[in-house]
Amino acid sequence: MKQFLFLSLIFFGFQFVKAQSNKIQYDSLLAKKLGADDYGMKSYILAILKTGTYTAKDKKESDSLFRGHMNNIGKLASEGKLTVAGPLGKNDNAYRGIFILDVKTVEEARKLCESDPAIKSNLFVVDLYPWYCSAALMEVNKIHETIQKKSH
Question: Rounded to 5 degrees, what are φ and ψ at 93?
């Protein structure tokens, strides 16, 4: 029994040491590709879309603006400028959605947002903020393509 206990302790001790050595290693090539700083972070621009003052005349116009909005999201994502986008649930602040843009300045983000017909028409207005987050966020679109069954 003592021998079994002794061997068990040695076995579990080795497992603990092995678990400690299985830490993920820094990947300098990936960090460089993603634009990561020494902390694995990078700067983005966070866009918060809010309900604007314009109301579409009818369903046809509304559908057209939203189709253009979705097409613009796809275009910016394919260009590597849009990292994440999505709608927000009902709220008291008239917030409708967010974009996280991989650009350096608020001015550049504003120009990209102005290419969106829903923003251009003032159906949505956008507030832009510098934002610091993990550079790993840059991999979201690539991963998303492998898990979506349908596309907009």
Answer: -100, 0
Q: Tell me, yes or no, if the pTM score tops 0.85.
A: no
For residue 3, the one-letter residue type is Q
Cα 96 from Cα 119, distance rounded (Å): 12
Task: Identify the structural domains of the chain with CATH numbers, from first to last.
Answer: 31-147 (3.30.70.1060)
* CA dihedral sign, ordered 26, 27, 30, 35: positive
Q: What's the pLDDT tens digit per position in 124-137?
A: 999 999 999 999 99
Alpha-carbon distance 80 to 101, whole Å?
9
Contact assessment for residue 119 and residue 113, using Cβ atoms and an 8 Å cutoff:
yes
Q: Yes or no: say if 137 and 82 are a contact pair by the CB < 8 Å rule.
A: no
CA 67: distance to chain centroid?
21
Residue 71: CB partners within 8 Å, gap ≥ 6?
none
Q: Tell me the one-letter amino acid at 59.
A: K
